């Protein structure tokens, strides 16, 4: 296959008055709480990988909105998730971050015991209480679904199916066969910035020449094409420069391409923000996944994982450092500038600034956020003066 | 005396719907503030021992509700307590945690000087101010009383006598001659849990087989008997197992029993929670006292002291480690599980859970707390719909 | 010149009821916010020295009320100050605490570039946005003025001239030729006390015999004279004792007197609090400047600088330790007692206490603060009972 020339797609011109959001969207606790409730507690959030819970009883803990959630493999094979709260006196059941339950989950306080489906199966001395029924006290469940190896959680009581949130993405990204991939490295970042600044930073490369010269050498910042915001996700692709095989320290690739990719996709990197918390970056030979865990209006934990084909991870000399260190550097540059933005936006001097045409996804994302907060549409205040 | 057999007293059956309290009792600042004002500022709180202030001017500081209080021995022999606040410009008078005043208390700022009864006796340059009278500016006093060597403070202006709060306890515990006992060890714990969880944990041993296997070997968790909640205190006793002499690493006792104990009391441990902040644990050969110092809804400083007969503490080879280390381990197990409960109760998934019959004191304590907060009695909302 | 005898000026007698302020002035967030808005954001605050920005592009950052402000020398010679906030997406432009811009200020995120007067001169890709005009997006400016080498900032939109705030002080202190002086040492203190307690501590020496015995040996605490509060400043002078040349470890002075001082001024130390944040202490041979940077009702960063004549600072063996260490000790004694006052005033037991005649400036300062908060004048509540 011949290397394609750099193709620069033009972008639509921004509407007049297309500016960044007012400061309260990034600093107010009320805005934060609303986003947590409507987006993070109301949508499916990516919480891990099925490879973390392959055996019955194998589990990991995930902190979500201040909640500790136990994700575990059921005896009959499904993935279960429970609030880490005993039904007796509310005690946290488990403090190990990951491990394997020996067939049941037992509270350390008074030994109330639950099976792997959350049913209460043991409650010492409660048989002396005539009105007590074990069936009335199962663990509180968190909804789970999986997509191609990704485990999703949903804290709402009656969630939409995950498929409705993902739309066409499962089909679109089927060739990468994500379920087969295996974790190669995980780095956890603690970023002093609003989670939306991280999403916005992820969705434009206008900052790349200045902030990421190394990245810009491998993939031209004007290359590729965006897909308009689709309600629950947005993204786009960028093209590798001629002679570049993947995003790594020097652009070379010591790994095989993922099987099943078309020659075209083997020359591209796809960047998709799947709202609210997943940033999925598909490379020719590996998958990078960021998941965002907001702690406060100005603080977000960001878990970054790199996943590779098992043919690579099982090689005795497997070493993902070329990809991991390239992105770790790029990540840190991004989080630093997100923190600078958070600090500046918090200033009394900050006023919304104009977007360029290359920041089209951000503008669309902002519109979605404004709508989420129930702001009146432009001009709405003009009417309504008369009853 | 022959070792008695294990006697298991049954407990009354819990009323239907006897559950733990809603989360707000453990996490809300408003509830915390109300408890601090009504219980900790409105009742007598145990603050130390008379042996800490035996000589005139000898003092120690105690933090209460964010207040620094000076407890000191008066020139004529009584125990005084003062807010650590100069009447001139409000400066804290004293920062040493304990020591001896040389006859008076002097402010480090402008040398205002008070005698050991809090009277202002020196105020440089104030004689130039015609309307100034020293008698109008004594230290602000905190009420004090003592019970058998325990020093109590009361922050309210016109407290009930301490005797009214203690009821029959002074007579009941007279045989232990607590005033004679001397401090052997003090450990201060910083517990990330609501103070009530510590009180509740103290008042049931249903958790002992699981959480405290060592304790359960010395004293069977179903032994003994509870005394119903008496308004200002609640408690009970547990029996030592046959062959066990006291609560220590191996159940043996290198010390003499306390003089004056009946043979029956020499086989028992009494656990009394004297509201709001004292947990009094009387062993055959020593006294353990916890005092609770809440800092926040989810944080409590817990001072634990072990006191022994002076015949023991004055022995050259006196070593209380067998008792201290046994309880230090047990304490840490308790605080850990209290912290797990605090964390779980803070979850959005937490719902009140059912009490067993062995948690009767907790249920009574909860009723008292609910009443304290002025919650309407059950059914109260049914009426009142019509004016 | 012959050493003058100690002259003790009497002070006016305090009015009946002249007491310190109620606690809320020192602990309430609302009071703090009002003082920050009306005093620190509404008046000129001393922020540094012109010697820190002698060359075009030379800059330093200053934190003011949580704002990061860039102070820099313009190409044509003036001193400019800007909010550290890019007009594009709000990013903080600069994180170095001091340095030199190479002719322009560039945002690290998307390379928006401003000249040293804050004009936007570069904005990549914004030319594709038809409605965009560079002139509409200069850096947000902070007003600056200078007085004899001191750089002042003013966050209000339309400030009074600095001269109006300083009144007769520039003429009064002209003989010290402060602009010529050069920084010899800087120490930053983090004080857990309200900023007003530091101002009050600075304006009376009644505490000196007790708290500062070393200072009192060099300069008698009753010497000198105060100037009544003048609306925007207050201060006074103290006299050196016979045989003492300056305030230093032993009262001797290894430096020449400042040129231009009268023989009388060469025997005096002037202490002026220039509201809201500058404490100017003029010694015969050096200038000490404290600037106050409140962070919270109970926390103030205090930057202390010692400035000397350039004939001294350029000497190869220049060593200001005798003056710096003397004051560093004295400063620490003061901040400690300010922290004790903050702690005591926060007590529920604190009540306003009586001022002595030697605390006349404090009483005047308090009246100004009360007026600032819009408290009704005394007696105002007597009227108004009838409509």
Short recap of the structure:
The structure is a homotrimer of 387-residue chains. Chain A has 387 residues and is α+β, with helices and mostly antiparallel strands.
Question: Would you give an account of this structure?
Answer:
- The structure is a homotrimer of 387-residue chains.
- Chain A has 387 residues and is of the alpha+beta class.
- The first copy, chain A, folds into two domains: 24-42 and 169-372, Naphthalene 1,2-dioxygenase Alpha Subunit, Chain A, domain 1 (Alpha-Beta Complex); 47-147, 3-layer Sandwich (Rieske Iron-sulfur Protein).
- In chain A, 22% of the residues lie in helices and 26% in strands.
- A seven-stranded antiparallel sheet of chain A has the order 1-10-9-4-3-2-5, with no helix packed on it.
- In chain A, helix 5 crosses helix 9 (321-345).
- Chain B binds chain C through residues 65-68, 83-93, 95, 108-111, 124-126, 128-132, 137, 140, 155, and chain C through 13-14, 16-17, 20, 23, 206-207, 209-211, 337, 340-341, 343-351, 353-358.
Keywords, please?
homotrimer; 387 residues; alpha+beta; Naphthalene 1,2-dioxygenase Alpha Subunit, Chain A, domain 1; Rieske Iron-sulfur Protein; 2 domains; seven-stranded antiparallel beta sheet; 10 helices; globular
